[in-house]
Amino acid sequence: MTKRLKIVSWNINSVRARTALVERLLDEHQPDVLCLQETKVVDGTFPSDLFRSRGYVHMALNGQKMHHGVAILSRLPLNDPGRHDWQDNGEARHVGVRLECGIRLENVYVPAGGDTPDRNVNLKFGQKLDFIERMTRWSDGLCEPTIIVGDFNVAPLECDVWSHKALLNVVSHTPIEVEALGRLQQAHGWIDIGRKFTPAPTRCFTWWSYRSPDWTKNDRGRRLDHMWASPELAGHLAAHIVLEPCRNWERPSDHVPLICELHI
DNA sequence: ATGGCTGGTAGAACCAGA
Asked: Which pLDDT belongs to residue A1?
């Protein structure tokens, strides 16, 4: 008799501006654990009551004023909370916990990387590459079953963007970022859960710019959000879904939620 | 069509996102 563990990851682009959407997601999909990125709120004013009232009484927060910020909200107990500063500049971009089933869950918000894909003229691009490099060294030494989810801000495959050719020199899809993410994936044999259940070259996007008047019109999306599993969990993966309809909810985030389910 | 929008914060002809 196996149980199922349902995890959702969502770049919410301000948790306070989208409380109604978060409530709807919890009501409709009933995840065991919700990982949020870009909460944009300090821990002291995080809307904890919203989650507590729905049974998500276990929380691991890492927020900061205005920007970034991550949170794990859970119906299951969370142990050994930890934070990494993989950019080494104080920004709140990671929080990790251990579930009682023995799985370690890491929630990450990789820096966007600014406009110009050249670390010599754009500090933020270098910080993004350094962040991924530090994650690579960290994941090289892992020795427990781990799920890492979040906004990686890299669309690695040609089919992860609306036009590979048009985005080759656009931050999020440049070869230097794709190679850095590839080294990270190889360092621990991470399984790309999204592509396990939706193999390339099937279209799979998780983000559409706010700037398009109609995000569906040209469908200029990118797969920036990911869920990865360490190799020993391969036989436990049960499902993966991208909740694309959430991009049509009222005042949506520009990212949509991802769900994965595991047999535990 | 590298920004056409959005949120936070201040009270901006701002910044950041990607």
From this structure: 65
